[in-house]
């Protein structure tokens, strides 16, 4: 989904005022007559509702009439629905009962930040992602405010705990996404391709993740898409960088839905006003389309399809560092297609079936040239195709425990051409896994499993055991540990030239503690990660590289202390060294920082129908290579510290029957200088700073939505 529609979803969430016909009020208590705070009260099928105060009371007005269901929800308590008549005022006394499953059952959590609409202890929901100032409604940019993630804003990917962006895998509904980011230009990273509102659940696993997933040394970003929309809707958007339109249709029986969207982005007019460091010579221009289909095949079965296509052209000129007085040109044409089809069903006797298939194709056509130098341009074409199938069976054992096992197959075709010279390969990858979540007691659970993998291009097999344990100390706190081996094939750019390389390996050790209540979350984690068999490029390609990463992380989120305020703070300490690629010995790599911290602050003003947000991010300097220093000083110098402040504001109104919002967002609002590293000329006499292409980015847009008002999302989030 496009950047525009993300903002649309974000800001149509602000409450609207409407004329009332009747008043619904009352009090909510538990079965011991103690008042309950933060209970969400809502009339089903409408957007009328309220949240209980400190004394358990609530009150709201509604324009609905007749018999309706009133729902009362609170984390840790059973959902209550009761029928009321809204034609007249209602005074209600509601009693909620504890949910044994939610309050007393421990869950696997070491290494994972897990968020979904139906789980307790959520960290970042879709609304959190799109309301994070400075993130640009991008999932990965919002994830970077969590502990474990690095602020590597000069290259694409999610860098986690001393791992490269390649070592983090992205999955949608259990299926691998081969190219989750738009193609990047030198020193200009690509954005994530997906809208947060496509997903009902987000798991950011910075280590110790399930044996269901493989081929990621460091991390997994696991996304679960929504099932069916609440109702049919349509949308249009206009901003300083483009336009978009979309429609979602829900069938009358509410068992089937489909949606289509198209968007067009053109940054050239923007760059004509706000001059970038590198001047555009092509675009930047993007055309995107997407489609989804959902069908409820039975009471327990769901069929989902999602697909998109992107066509991008962009290019920039910059002064040549190697040839002073000349201009370097870089042009990119990218075509990307991704499709995903999954089916889940209960096949009886507590057995469940999952089947998935996906296909993706990504093609980059690159033209690099030193203008007027009278030399042959560099022409590069890279095409990556991936077909994947996956099958999994899982069975419930008793009330809480579950076993799962399955297999997957991937057929990857990698083609590349460099000035007419080809370097291609095909890989048949197969994997099998088995895993069990065994509850010894409701407060003590163990996850034991393993994964076997075979790659035809490597001609090798591996086996990766994984174990996690978690103990719940009380209704809010738990302690977890995890151990696991993780393997990954070398990057395609190395396998194209040496097919005798082997798997890279990382071993994770994690200890964590978390305390999760309705209005706050505290989490701390200590980890150690050992790398073996990393790829080295000197003196020849080999797997003699090694390294380690260790550190401590802290996360705090608070929705209660300040009225209408939601904020979180994260901090990461990272000690990591690697001997890989052309490194002469172990050093801290150029993408890592010892200290990283984020503060995300959001304030809602009900009377002004306005949201304000602020995000501050900090990271200590990163190492960089200076060819003028002796080898014993390799990567010994560091850049300046990274400081950035993002701000956002939105105002909601209505135009006829459309929920209309006006959006203003600024990244790096003060224009702080940011240096990510340096490029040196071959002779080492000249260098150029690696900085953002623009010091700040200003976004202004208007978006209209017909059919959906997500007011209750905001109420639930405060």
Written account of the structure:
The chain is mainly β. Helices cover 6% and strands 55% of the residues. It is built from 7 helices and 39 strands. The strands form 6 sheets. The protein has a 22-stranded antiparallel barrel. The protein has a 5-stranded mixed beta sheet with strand order 8-11-12-9-10, with no helix packed on it.
Report the count of strand segments. 39
* Count of DSSP-assigned helices: 7
What separation lies between the terminal Cα atoms? Answer: 26 Å
- Gross morphology: globular
Our estimate of the beta-strand percent is over 45%
pLDDT < 50 runs, ≥5 residues: 1-20, 100-104, 115-122, 710-718
Query: Over the alpha carbons, how many angstroms does the gyration radius reach?
Result: 26 Å
Overall residue-averaged pLDDT value: 87
Overall structural class, as computed from helix and strand content, comes to mainly beta
Approximate helicity band: under 10%
Q: What summary fits the major beta sheet?
A: 22 strands, antiparallel, barrel
List keywords for this structure.
718 residues, mainly beta, 22-stranded antiparallel barrel, five-stranded mixed sheet, 7 helices, 39 strands, 6% helix, 55% strand, disordered N terminus, disordered C terminus
Give the SSE layout:
Layout: H1 3-11, E1 22-30, E2 40-43, E3 49-51, E4 57-62, E5 67-73, E6 80-85, E7 90-96, H2 100-104, E8 112-116, H3 126-130, H4 139-143, E9 168-172, E10 175-176, E11 199-205, E12 219-225, E13 233-239, E14 242-250, E15 256-266, H5 268-273, E16 279-295, E17 302-319, E18 327-348, E19 351-371, E20 378-397, E21 401-418, E22 421-422, E23 425-441, E24 444-455, E25 460-472, E26 477-488, H6 492-495, E27 504-516, E28 520-536, E29 542-558, E30 565-579, E31 595-605, E32 610-619, E33 623-624, E34 637-638, E35 642-655, E36 658-667, E37 677-680, E38 687-690, E39 697-706, H7 711-717
Parallel strand pairs: 1-7, 9-12
Antiparallel strand pairs: 1-4, 2-3, 2-5, 5-6, 8-11, 9-10, 11-12, 13-14, 13-39, 14-15, 15-16, 16-17, 17-18, 18-19, 19-20, 20-21, 21-22, 21-23, 23-24, 24-25, 25-26, 26-27, 27-28, 28-29, 29-30, 30-31, 31-32, 32-35, 33-34, 35-36, 36-39, 37-38
